[in-house]
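Handout, page 2. Input:
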Amino acid sequence: MANLAVYKKFYNINNTNELLRKFQETLLVSNKTFSYFVDWGKIQANVKKYEYEINILNYLVGIAEPKEKLREILKKNPEVVTVIPLIIAVHDSEITVIEDRAKPAESLRIFDFEAKGKLEDEEITELVTFCDKSGIFNLFSSLKIKNLRDFLLGVETGSDTNARKNRSGTAMEELIEPIIDTIKDITVVKQKKFQYLQEEYKMKIPAKLADRKFDYAIITKRKVYNMEVNYYDGQGSKPQEIVDSYTNRKNELAKDGFGFIWLTDGVGWKGGVHQITNAFNDMDYILNIEFARKGILNEILNH
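Output:
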């Protein structure tokens, strides 16, 4: 159950219901910083890495019949093969395709885009076939792009939006870490497996969690705390699944003397009242960003 004594030092509350009400009143409506939207550094690095190969493939731009030109390029410069998947927003060096939808298992065809010093004629034919059937030649001959580099920057930007879900956790870290940095007499370990604590700090850890990754392990003079951080906007995972996951984590850690802090935020908890109530009844410490800023995180760790 929530350790009300800690919360009472900062808020005029008398019971868990009042604590829950204060928690909901102080939820963030967004956790997005400007860096959340697009990782421009990663996009530029992804394109710059293949700048030489991209410049060679630019010869295909505007050509009415690019097949023979690609054959010629692949013969002289086989290294450009690595760029082909990027044109269709794929970062794998091997792509498996179903050729006949009526016979999916029997018609699998594997295309290899691994860099090689030389490509045989048969391999070149396979690559040309892939570009033809996947529509890549249409890009060069009909869609009238001005240059491949600019096109790939656009593709990478579009692909990067798919990573926003992962950046939601990073966005929360950006909000909590300035608070952590002000807390004295602690050692912070970030984004490691629990086994790391056993190997580097000789800690006894729950066997079930050895290969599990934590957001933060915070080592204080008295105790070690696992702090997990997330933002719930009401989309994605079901609230009860989230609560059950962290309740189980807390219980496993308690067996070996670890403390557990769940820092969660987001307006999704306004709709998940029953679930977050269960969490406050099962866990000692649940915080949102405002609670942490108020000083409750420091109070938990150093008192």
